[in-house]
Amino acid sequence: MTRQPPLVRRADPEDHAGVARLTVAAYRADGQLDDEHGYADVLADVTTRAAHCEILVAADGDVLLGAVAFVLPGTRYAELSRPGEAEFRMLAVDPAAQRRGVARALVRACIDRATVLGCGSMVICTRDRNSAALALYDTFGFVREPALDWTPVEGVTLLGLRLKLPTTAT
Question: Which parts of the sequence belong to the N-acetyltransferase domain (predicted)?
């Protein structure tokens, strides 16, 4: 039996607590949280994030499986994007829902959203040691762009990647 990809939709305010829980759980399970830097609090503050970017969720019925923040340049959560680009951040899959195509569906939704908005590329960053994420992004055609690498806090290196998006000639 083939499993259907999860439904991806825009998060409702009622989803915020679930998104906070699964995002913190996913980052913690993946060894990406160091509580001394306070990033767990940032990840859990979905209400503030939703006021500045689009929060997309992947769901199976009423069960939230994953979430991501779709970000445009010049907004509060933009880290890398410049005019004509989009980015996504805080991609998280509930540890109990991994290996079900959730991350793939969320990345695809972000790419589709950026394409609809006419963005020429999507830029993202990921931890240098996150080989699973790098492998996933590679399947979409993201290419490393070392000029986008940065270190938000000591001991955390983020690698920049870019995906050129199709544009329509006018």
Answer: 6-168
Q: Are strands 85-93 and 143-144 parallel, antiparallel or unpaired?
A: unpaired
Query: What distances in angstroms separate CA 103 from CA 2, 51, 75, one per listed residue?
Result: 17, 23, 23
Which positions ≥6 away from 92 have C-beta within 8 Å? 22, 23, 25, 26, 27, 43, 66, 67, 68
pLDDT (tens, 9 = 90+) of the chain, 170 residues, equals 456 778 999 999 999 999 999 999 999 998 777 666 788 999 999 999 999 999 999 999 989 999 999 999 999 999 999 999 999 999 999 999 988 999 999 999 999 999 999 999 999 999 888 888 999 999 999 999 999 999 888 888 899 999 999 875 54
d(CA 43, CA 71): 15
HSE toward the beta carbon, residue 24, CA cutoff 13 A: 15
User: What's the token pair of residue 98?
Assistant: 């991994």
